[in-house]
Amino acid sequence: GAEVFKMGLWIALPLIAMLLFVNMMLGVIARVAPQISIFSIGFPITLSVGLIGVMFTLPLLQGPFTAALEQMLMLFR
């Protein structure tokens, strides 16, 4: 169970960090300019940044997926 959790965190960590940064910047924007409705612009911005992040990080995930599959095959042998 620990190995599965470690691999999942290793694969998801870049996107989690990117979305955390986006949410922090949206918090700063909401604090600086309170007249901007952060709920109306926050969701589309977060969604688009998440999808763009998946698009750019998907080719880089070949290494972690290959390592995870090799590790699972070693456990089954």
How do the helices and strands line up, and which of them pair or pack?
Layout: H1 2-32, H2 38-57, H3 62-76
Helix pairs in contact: 1-2
Descriptive account of the structure:
This protein has 77 residues and is an all-alpha fold. It is 86% helix and 0% strand. The chain is built from three helices and no strands. It has helices spanning 2-32, 38-57, 62-76. The chain is elongated, with a radius of gyration of 17 Å. The mean pLDDT is 89.
Quick take:
The protein has 3 helices and no strands. The chain is mainly α and 77 residues long.
Notable traits:
single chain; 77 residues; mainly alpha; 3 helices; 86% helix; elongated
Average pLDDT works out at 89
Helix % is over 70%
Class from helix and strand fractions = mainly alpha
Low-confidence stretches: none
Number of strand elements: 0
Termini, distance in Å?
18 Å
Shape by Cα distribution? elongated
User: Beta-strand level of the residues, as a percent range?
Assistant: under 5%
Largest sheet: none
Number of helices: 3
Radius of gyration based on Cα positions: 17 Å
Q: What is the N-to-C order of secondary-structure elements (H for helix, E for strand)?
A: HHH
